[in-house]
Amino acid sequence: LNSLKPFYPDIEDDVEAINKAVLEGVSSKRKLEKRVRGVGLTNISGFLKNRGSMGIISYKGYWFQNHEGTINTRMLSCPLKGTCVNLYIDKQSILDISDMGEEVWGE
User: Fold this and answer.
1) pTM of the full predicted structure?
2) What pLDDT is stored for residue 34 in this prediction?
3) Nearest C-alpha neighbor of 28 from the set 50, 61, 6, 55
């Protein structure tokens, strides 16, 4: 929340901050350089649909996306100082992708 609030003053709590952070183009980094910012969590979230899940805890915000893409959020009673991102990737889905070769990896 603290890192996004200066750029997005409409954010009111930690869950809203996480929801915002997974949107494409949202970043707490200043745009001084001509680099693409704010695509990492969006890309990971999209990749994990039907392949795994992702959980994010940041201060008192909890955000979880299951393998179907359904998102559950809640406020925690005890804060975590910092941010933790957990990824679960189904091993079989990675093996399926590696078998696709050029179609996915450009080989």
Assistant:
1) 0.75
2) 55
3) 6
